Amino acid sequence: MKIKFSYLIISFSFLCFHSSAQIDTTKNIAYAEADGKKLLLDLYMPGAKRNPYLIVWVHGGAWSGGSKEKPPLGLLPAGYALASINYRLSGEAPFPACIYDIKAAIRFLRGNAGKYGYRADKITIWGSSAGGHLVALAGVTNNDPYYEGNLGDYKKESSSIQAIIDFYGPSDFTTILTQSTPHGLSVRVPALTALLGKPVEQVPELARKASPVFHVDSTDPPLLIVHGDQDIQVPVNQSIELMEVYKKKKLPVQLEFIAGAGHGGAVYDTEEVLGIVKKFLADLFK
Question: CA within 20 to 30 Å of 108's CA: 38, 117, 152, 251, which one?
Fold first, then answer.
C-alpha cells in the first residue's frame, strides 16, 4: 500500500460540527462499572438518519487525562452515529484496565443497538494520540481473551471492531523511546511508566502486550492512520511500523502524512482531513 502525502491548509474546524442540523444527544450512559465507579459514554445520533453506522470515539491525553467531552462530530452530517467514551486513566488503574473498558463499551453498544437505533454489524473505532494507540490495540485484538476483561452486563456480546481510525497514536512501546526527541521523551517516559505501572524496560512483556504492532493478524479490520510529519511527541515511525506490519499481512491500510503538522492541533480539524476519513468509511461501508 503506497503512503499518501497530503498537503493541507489550516481552515475552519469541520470535525467539530456546529451547524443547525439536528443531533440527538444522550449524555452519561453507564456502560459498565469498575472499582466502584460507573464508566460513562455519550451518544450522538444524526436526527435525520435511520439506523446509521456507529463510530466509537476514544479520547487522548497521555492515558492519564482527557475525557469524553467535546468529541469530533463532523461525521454526523454524513449520517454516522458517534459514541464518545470515558475509560479508566492510568492514575486510576494501569494497563490493561483501559482496554478492558473499551471492550466493555463495545459490547454494551452492540447489545443496545436496537434500543438506541444504530447498526451493530459494522462498528468503527476512532481515537487520537493515546486514544489512537488504544483504538489500534482494540481493533487488532478482536476475540483475544487477554484483552476482554469481565466488565458490564453484556459479556455474551462481541467486542469486535470492523474498522480502525488511528490519529497519530503510538504503536510500539519497545521502540518509541529510542525514536523520540528529547521533548518526546520528557512526555512519553512518565506517561508510559504510569500506564504500565513500571518503566518500559522493567516490563518488556507487558510493553509488547500493550503494543499494537505485535498483535496484527490476517483477520484484522481495515486501518486508516493519519500522522503529522513534524510530530515531536509521537514519532511518525510509529505509524510506519504499524502500516508495515499490516502490509506484510496483506491487510487494507492507508497512511496519510499531514505535511508540517505536529502532535494535534487545528490542522487535523480541516475539511480535507474529514474528507479522508469520510472516503475511508464510505469505501468500506458501501
Answer: 251
Rg (CA), the chain: 18
Residues 194-221 pLDDT 10s = 999 999 999 999 999 999 999 999 999 9
Helix (H, G, I), strand (E, B) or coil at 60: coil
Helices 130-140 and 97-111, interaxial angle, to 10°? 70
Give the 3-state secondary structure of residue 183. Answer: helix
As given in the structure block, the three cell numbers for residue 44 are 450522538
Burial of 45 (0-12, 13-18, 19+ CB in 10 A): buried
CA distance 81 to 137: 22
pLDDT tens for 113-155 read 999 999 999 999 999 999 999 999 999 999 999 999 999 999 9
Between the two ends of the chain, the Cα-to-Cα distance in Å is: 21
Phi, psi of 191 (to 5 degrees): -65, -45
| Phi-psi sector, 51: left (phi>0), alpha (psi -120 to 50), beta | left
This prediction has a pTM of 0.91
Rounded to whole angstroms, how far apart are CA atoms 133 and 105? 17
3-state helix, strand, coil in the chain (%, to 5): 35, 20, 45
Place of cell 503512503: 3
Cα angle, residue 179 at apex, residues 146 and 232 outer, rounded to 5°: 105
DSSP state of 44: E
Looking at residue 82, its amino acid is L
- C-alpha distance from residue 226 to each of 6, 67, 183, 284 (Å): 10, 21, 21, 17
Going by C-alpha positions, the residue among 229, 190, 159, 199 that lies closest to residue 3 is: 229
Of 43, 46, 16, 49, nearest to 28 by C-alpha is 43
The arrangement of strands across the sheet holding 223-228 comes to 4-6, 253-258, 223-228, 163-167, 123-128, 54-58, 81-85, 37-46, 23-34
Across the strands, what pairs with 44?
A: 25, 82
